[in-house]
Each structure stands twice: as structure tokens, then as C-alpha cells.
Amino acid sequence: MSEIKAHRISDEIIENWPDKEISKLVLEYYDLWDPSPKTHSDSTGGLQQALGEVTKLKNIIGERKFTNFFEIGTSDGGSLWLYSLLFCDENSKIVGLDVIYELGAGTIIEELKKRNRNVKYVISDCNDKNKVLRFVEDESIDLLHIDANHGYYDVKKYFENYYPKVVKGGLILIHDTNACESPDGGSVRFREEVLEPDYDHQLITGEWLITGNYDQGENIVSPGISLVRKH
């Protein structure tokens, strides 16, 4: 499935964002990503998270630092950058996984290492039992971020395979569950048909979704993050 890239947030909006820690990290991200070589010459990607969503997520998580952060769908490394620096520390184990090596993400990961983040960039199919799944212990991940292919059956398979890998009390973030351009309903359908009715988990907030302005100037639908805690 082709990946739909979000539009680029203007530097002016980032600079004036109310949460100055997030503002600083996003500006630093683009300072690294913009001049870096790209796997695709026409790449217009970068940060895919809505600033409003990340700000709400930060407020919910607070000062908690995770010991084992695992991301499915690292793409250009935007969320890996933010979550590694906001929600992890030098003692955390961090894995960013994707099927394609992105040169820009490689640049981001090298900078994370310079900032004392223990991060590993894995290029593989996350559902491959021989190359990935059998090496990830059950109940070992305390922060799981799912943001790869957004087709309904893709998201369902990611969730089913990795739910047992999450510790009790661990958090699972699933991106694009409020708005998703997929002919089979994608991440939104997964939230409505599978995530909400089933599984033994609880909500962090009173709603299934964290939504927020993509930026402060454009009328763009918030992609949405489903945030649950595993019992």
C-alpha cells in the first residue's frame, strides 16, 4: 500500500507552538532531516504527527519514561525522534522498524545515538516470525507505536501479533484511527470494529481518540491516535 504523506508544517507555526519543548524538538528534527540524503528523490515527507496530538499525548504520559519502546512503521523517523526524546531516556531500549531503509531516518537515528538513546533501526517485515517476532519476548514492550501500512487487515495483523508482546500496564499507540485514506476503511475501521469492542485494555482518556489541530493555520482533519493501556 502506498503511503500518504502529510503536508509540511510551516516553520512559523512550529516556532509559535505553545509547548516549547515540542516546538524545539520539531525544529531540530527538520534541521537534521531537510539536508539529509533521501531514499526517494521526490520525498516530501518528514514529521507525520499532528502537533496538537503530540501535545495532548505528552500531557497524558507526563513524566513517565519507558524502558522498551518499539515502533512499527518508522518511515522518516519523525515519531521515533519525538517519542525517543520525550518519553525515553538513556536507559531505554528503542527499536524502529520498517520494510524500507529511509536515508533520512538513518540520519535521525544517528543523532538520537549521539543524544544517548539506545536505538536500533531494523529493516524487515514486522510480522516475519523468523526474523522479528521470535526475537521479541512476550510482555517485554511498554510503549508500542503502530504506524505502518494503514489497510484494515494490515493494522489488525500488527495488533494481533504484537499485543502479547506488550507488558501489563504498557501503552499502545495506533496512529491514523480518526482519519485514514484506505479503501477498506483502514485504521478507522479497525478502531471501530476491533479495538473498541474487544481486548482486555482500558482507555487513558474518556474517548478512544486523541485528536488535535494538525497546526494552527490549516483546516486539516486530525489523523488521531488511539491510546490504550493493557491490563
What order do the helices and strands come in, and which of them pair?
Blueprint: H1 11-15, H2 20-33, H3 51-61, E1 68-72, H4 78-87, E2 93-98, H5 103-114, E3 118-123, E4 141-146, H6 152-162, E5 166-175, H7 186-195, E6 201-203, E7 209-210, E8 225-230
Parallel strand pairs: 1-2, 1-4, 2-3, 4-5
Antiparallel strand pairs: 5-8, 6-8, 7-8
Helix pairs in contact: 2-4, 4-5, 6-7
| General form | globular
Level-2 CATH architecture: 3-Layer(aba) Sandwich
Rg over C-alpha atoms, rounded to the nearest angstrom: 16 Å
Low-confidence stretches: none
Estimated share of beta-strand residues: 15-25%
> Structural class given helices, strands, pairing?
alpha/beta
The total of helices stands at 7
Helix-strand sequence: HHHEHEHEEHEHEEE
**What is the CATH T-level topology?**
Rossmann fold
End-to-end distance, in Å? 32 Å
| Helical amount | 25-40%
The CATH class is Alpha Beta
- Could you describe the largest sheet, including whether it forms a barrel? 8 strands, mixed
Strand tally, please?
8
Name of the CATH homologous superfamily: Vaccinia Virus protein VP39
pLDDT averaged residue by residue: 85
- Domains (count): 1
